[in-house]
Design a protein that fits this description.
Layout: H1 9-12, E1 13-19, E2 22-29, E3 32-37, E4 43-47, H2 56-59, E5 67-76, H3 78-84, H4 88-94, E6 98-108, E7 111-112, H5 118-132, E8 148-151, E9 155-156, H6 159-167, E10 174-181, E11 194-197, H7 212-218, E12 232-237, E13 243-245, E14 253-256, E15 278-291, E16 296-307, H8 321-330, H9 337-345, H10 350-354
Parallel strand pairs: 6-8
Antiparallel strand pairs: 1-9, 1-10, 2-3, 2-5, 3-4, 5-6, 6-7, 10-11, 12-13, 12-15, 13-14, 15-16
Helix pairs in contact: 3-4, 6-9
Family: Belongs to the snurportin family.
GO cellular component, one term: nucleus
GO molecular function: RNA binding
């Protein structure tokens, strides 16, 4: 959500706080539970859970077709994060303590939920998690519960609901808000029916890129002020080698290769990047000239920082256009909570104001 709230914001959308942590897909089946990265599908950990099919105990007496698939955020316990911070990523992952905060459900006890609307899925997930199983109970290895699952509350997009989501009272640190269209089916990847939003209060990462200093240093670029405030984006070179495009399902052209200068003499020319490969770009002070109605990028102030190192596992995708424009807007004229509350109050009945 980079420019404004949807026209039907109040009537047809839900709001919820997004827990800060690792977005993942959790699959429980055949006596074990596996968490995979939502970004690239790599396995994060395998464990026992109270989900149907997620442990030897919860699989007993169930058919082989018993499985659950949940969209979650793993929020690590802050003390555990500090304890493992100096032992490397693998050690931190293996010894992590925390909870899986459930955002959505794709399947439950063998029944696929992808085609159900969000209104039904949210109610179903909350009811099944809290009434049908003990997955939400405290961890107990003896009972096959290595981690707890926590239902994430959702609210109507009226003034009260948006305010409650914004308060972020979900038992862990938050990273912005998520908005879901009530009638949306579950879709993998980016969709205009699920919107993310942040500001400085709800996210430690608002207008900050913790990896920017390293990327700029390797490219030989020195900027005044705090380097984490720089906006660095990832784009892919089109198959014909002429353009740099986004990672959307229908890639959007951001700039012609010939129009993008290199960020420093230390960096090779953009033309040397192979078609299909991704590169990093520094967004200059002029930012983007965008047609608000069509989200078409007329021009972009970009400086090439070099190729992005390929991932060892999984597929590396360029940034989506909405992410690029949101982060650019956040640094110049951010969409604030007042605008969201105004949209939530639009055409509201008097009874709603009085509640």
């Amino acid at each position: 959500m980079w420019d404004d709230a949807p026209d039907d914001f109040r009537e047809r959308w839900y709001a919820r706080a997004r827990p800060r942590g690792t977005r993942c897909v959790v699959v429980a089946t055949r006596g074990r539970t596996t968490a995979r990265s939502a970004r690239d599908g790599t396995t994060l950990r395998t464990f026992q859970s109270g989900l149907p099919g997620g442990s030897a105990r919860t699989s007993r007496g169930r058919s082989g077709e018993c499985f659950c698939i949940l969209d979650c955020v793993f929020a690590e316990d802050e003390r555990a994060r500090n304890e493992t911070g100096g032992r490397g990523k693998e050690a931190a992952t293996a010894n992590a303590r925390g909870a899986y905060h459930v955002l959505d459900v794709m399947a439950w006890n063998g029944a696929a939920m992808y085609d159900c609307d969000a209104e039904f899925r949210f109610f179903w997930a909350h009811t099944r998690l809290t009434e049908e199983c003990d997955a939400c109970e405290a961890p107990n290895a003896a009972l096959g519960r290595d981690f707890a699952f926590v239902p994430t509350p959702w609210y109507e997009c009226d003034v009260d609901g948006v305010s409650r989501a914004y308060a972020g009272d979900i038992g862990t640190e938050i990273d912005g808000l998520l908005f879901y269209h009530k009638e949306a089916a579950y879709e993998n990847g980016a969709t205009p029916l699920v919107l993310a939003w942040r500001d400085a209060k709800t996210s430690a990462f608002f207008t900050r890129d913790e990896g920017a200093a390293t990327v700029l240093s390797r490219a030989g670029v020195v900027l005044p002020g705090d380097p984490t405030a720089a906006q660095i984006i990832t784009l892919t070179k089109s198959s014909d080698g002429r353009f740099f495009v986004t990672g959307d399902d229908e890639p959007m052209v951001i700039a012609a290769v010939d129009a993008v200068p290199r960020a420093s003499e230390k960096v090779a020319a953009p033309a040397t990047l192979e078609p299909g490969r991704s590169g990093r770009f520094l967004v200059g002070p002029s930012g983007f000239d965008v047609d608000v109605e069509t989200a078409h990028v007329r021009s972009a102030d970009l400086h090439y920082l070099g190729p992005k190192p390929p991932k060892r596992r999984g597929v590396d995708r360029a940034d989506a256009l909405s992410k690029i424009l949101f982060n650019a807007r956040a640094r110049t004229a951010p969409l604030g909570i007042d605008a969201l509350l105004s949209a939530a109050a639009a055409d509201a009945p008097m009874t709603d104001h009085a509640r």
